[in-house]
Amino acid sequence: MDAEFDDKLPIYIQIMNIIKRDIVMKKLKEGDKLPSVREMSASLKVNPNTMQRVYQELEREGITTTQRGIGTFVTCNEKMISNIKIEMAKEIIETFIGGMKNLGFEENEIIQIIEKNVKGGGDLHGSNS
After folding, report:
1. H or E segment at 92?
2. Cβ atoms of residues 34 and 73 within 8 Å
């Protein structure tokens, strides 16, 4: 797992988001054991204290569980995983819509652009082709 970090967001949050994305995309499956704090901090080239915080926050949110002496595991709670996916989708949509409005697009134009792109006709010029 190699990552480049954005200076605008705390690294531990970025790592949490990477792990959440991997869970939603099934790269990490329900019940999978996560690498140790030491292994993860070495692979991501971050301080072990940062990884410890990531694991603590993931557990606090119910995304992982820790079994003392054994390791940290992805939750088997399908509803939790579904909620993570929905929350991530909301963030993407809010960012997209905000960006489009900043560019001067009206709501109906945004909807038309989305419909065209979902259907595979990715022309943003508004032509009715």
Report:
1. helix 78-102
2. yes
Backbone angles phi, psi at 65, to 5 degrees: -130, 145
Residue 123 in any domain: the answer is: no
> Are residue 46 and residue 89 in the same domain, yes or no?
no
| 111 located within any domain | yes
Domain membership of residue 53 as a residue range? 11-76
CA 52 to CA 11: how far, in whole Å? 12
Q: Which amino acid is at 44?
A: L
One pLDDT digit (tens) per residue for the chain, 129 residues: 556 788 889 999 999 999 999 999 999 999 999 999 999 999 999 999 999 999 999 999 999 999 999 999 999 999 999 999 999 999 999 999 999 999 999 999 999 999 999 888 655 655 444
* CATH code assigned at 59: 1.10.10.10
